[in-house]
Amino acid sequence: WYAVEFLSTLSGEMLVTMIYHKKLNEAWQQAAQELAHNLGIHIIGRSRGQKIVLSQDFVTEALEVNGKTFRYRQIEGSFTQPNAHVCQKMLTWACDAVQNLGKDMLELYCGNGNFTLPLSQHFNQVLATEVSKTSVNAAQWNIEANQITNLKIARLSAEEFTEAYTQNREFRRLQEQGIDLKNYDFSTIFVDPPRAGVDDETLKLVARFDNVLYISCNPETLRTNLDTLCQTHTIERAALFDQFPFTHHIESGVWLKKK
Predict the structure, then answer these.
(1) Model pTM?
(2) What is the model's pLDDT at position 183?
(3) Nearest Cα residue to 119 out of 89, 151, 142, 141
(4) How many CB atoms lie within 10 A of CB 232?
(5) Is the dihedral of CA 74, 77, 81, 82 positive or negative?
(6) Per residue in 162-192, pLDDT tens?
(7) Quick one: which of 10, 94, 102, 178 is 20 to 30 A from 20 by CA?
(8) Where does the chain hold its CATH 2.40.50.1070 domain(s)?
(9) d(CA 153, CA 156)
(10) Known catalytic residues?
(11) Taking residues 191-211, what's their average pLDDT?
(12) In DSSP terms, which residues pair with 234 in a beta bridge?
């Protein structure tokens, strides 16, 4: 046994993944089931080419934003915000920033819909994109569980969506999902990219929007992207969120408005 991963919720629900060098047998499974029962947790066992799910491979989180509770299915191995208390602060800040912007919103890198769900309350329509199948499936469950009717998810990378939006390439996936980009009147784009930041081509797309809401897990790539965006936009609001106390990591939030 060489690694263990924990996925927990504010309510105390816990999923533990134990990772091994050797193959897992029936004796391990019996011992793991007993441990799961005694501790009241979910357990997954992994080794090379092997995954044993004893009960389920997800937890269900509940986050409160401006007095409203949103439920999220968070799946083992997929990305989720690690600090739920700070995440609630981030969601509240983002929703406050988009008050009264109106029209429709586009989101890139939406994950399981962490920001998408509460932000959708402030727009007529929301179109969100995500490349991970696991995250898209979780987002679809979250949309239904929270009874949100003005939100659609497209399984595209940011680069692919840029090609579709600029009409440089057609994607059958959009048609299959009943998504017609001509039916949207976007006023705002929301991005929460990976540590590498927004790539150059996608950044050109971002700069076309009147309002840009940018959540970043890497201040250095955020600064590089802002050097470009500040040529066309001004920073209206900014915030820092310390998800990882006593480390150098910091989350940043910026709202930019077109000049």
Answers:
(1) 0.91
(2) 92
(3) 151
(4) 14
(5) positive
(6) 888 888 888 888 888 888 898 999 999 999 9
(7) 10
(8) 3-56
(9) 9
(10) 217, 251
(11) 93
(12) 257
Q: 187 with 100: CB under 8 angstroms?
A: no
- Classify the C-alpha dihedral 141-79-62-52 as positive or negative: positive
Taking CA atoms, 110 is separated from 137, 193, 217, 254, in Å, by 12, 9, 14, 17
The CATH code of domain 83-258 reads 3.40.50.150
CA dist., res. 104 & res. 116, Å (int):
12
Chain centroid to Cα 179, Å, comes to 20
Query: Given this model, what pLDDT does residue 93 score?
Result: 97
245 CB neighbour count, 10 Å cutoff:
8
Q: Are 58 and 44 in contact (CB under 8 A)?
A: no
pLDDT at 215: 96
If we measure between CA atoms, which residue out of 214, 251, 218 comes closest to residue 230?
Answer: 214
- For residue 82, the model assigns a pLDDT of 87
Instruction: Please give the single-letter amino acid code of residue 109.
Output: Y
**130, 136 contact by CB (below 8 A):** yes
Neighbouring C-beta atoms of residue 11, cutoff 10 Å: 11
CATH 3.40.50.150 residue ranges for the chain: 83-258
> pLDDT tens digits for 43-72?
999 999 999 999 999 999 999 999 999 999
Q: For 66-123, what is each residue's pLDDT tens digit? A: 999 999 999 998 888 889 999 999 999 999 999 989 899 999 999 999 999 999 999 9
pLDDT digits over 26-49, tens only? 999 999 999 999 999 999 999 999
**CATH class in words for 3-56:** mainly beta
The pair of three-digit structure tokens given for residue 27, joined into one six-digit string: 């004796």
